[in-house]
Amino acid sequence: MSEEKCTSASKNPGHPCFGANHDKAGRIHLPVAPGCNIKCGFCERKFDCANENRPGVTSRVLTPEEALERLRLVMAHPEGGANMRVVGIAGPGDPLANERTFETFRLVKEHFPRLMLCLSTNGMLLPERIDDLQELGVHSVTVTINALTPEVGAKIYQWVRVDGERLSGEEGARQLLRRQLEGVEAAVAAGMLVKINTVYIPGINDHETLPLAVTARKLGASMMNILPLIPQGIFSDRERPSERVMELIRNQAETIIAQARHCGQCRADAAGLIGQDMDLCALKKPAVLSGKLSCTGLQSGGC
């Protein structure tokens, strides 16, 4: 493994989440996937304020056809069309647990073939859907892995749905971890660029962060993204890790695998440059949406 692997992604995909210049390379998240097959203790989807910038939040879940219309609107705008590189699906649930994900990718591939396709997943269904993703030409996959042992996973995941059965505790965490690792390995073997996300929860999984970096590198992942806990759900009484703590752990992990330091923990309906999301309601000619989408379902503006 080359030294370059530890400091930068081994490929230059033009993807803002994989090392490309995020001041020039834009992305759009299409919120078409509401269902999820696991329940993370830190995930809270009951409330939506458009000022919130966190995963699992969207102003409106779209159908694949509505998602294509949203993409057309952004691509028709000089700023959006010039910068757009990637179409991603990151929820608000797990993309692989929703057939709408695959329908949306097929539409995007047909109408905007130059754009890269990517998704973020918990990895539960990654091994069994890898052929579908490869057929669609999905370029990159982010897999969120928050634990390396069932003991720790049982503290983070409230339940996991496996083959229609809801499992909790260590057994559920064990099943999830096995499929996550198999999925990462399969995605790498399929030629996809893979990033590992992990939510850093002090006192819960912090001791597994560096071992996870080692595992990610061994499996062939290109990057790792260590995210600070957003206190909510069963972890609402815990403090968010400080910037100093996050910088320290990222510096340590970077000696093992490249680190993504610019992540904004984006909403499931983010669009534009990272940190400069577009207000879709402010775009000209909203009539191209044929009245199907209101501003409530488009904006990233005020609450």
State the main characteristics.
single chain, alpha/beta, TIM Barrel, 9 helices, 32% helix, disordered N terminus, disordered C terminus
Describe the protein's topology.
Layout: H1 4-7, E1 26-29, E2 38-40, H2 64-76, H3 78-83, E3 84-89, H4 99-111, E4 116-121, H5 126-136, E5 140-144, H6 150-156, E6 157-162, E7 165-167, H7 169-189, E8 193-200, H8 209-219, E9 223-228, H9 243-254, E10 258-259, E11 271-273, E12 276-277
Parallel strand pairs: 1-3, 3-4, 4-5, 5-8, 8-9, 9-10
Antiparallel strand pairs: 1-11, 2-6, 6-7, 11-12
Helix pairs in contact: 2-4, 5-7, 6-7
Describe the structure.
Helix content is 32%, strand content 18%. The chain has one domain (4-297): TIM Barrel. It is α/β, with parallel strands linked by helices. The longest helix has 21 residues, at 169-189. The chain is globular and about 45 Å long. The chain contains nine helices and twelve strands. Helix 5 (126-136) packs parallel to helix 7 (169-189) and helix 6 crosses helix 7. The strands form two sheets. The protein has a nine-stranded mixed β-sheet. A three-stranded antiparallel β-sheet has the order 2-6-7. The chain has helices spanning 4-7, 64-76, 78-83, 99-111, 126-136, 150-156, 169-189, 209-219, 243-254; strands spanning 26-29, 38-40, 84-89, 116-121, 140-144, 157-162, 165-167, 193-200, 223-228, 258-259, 271-273, 276-277.
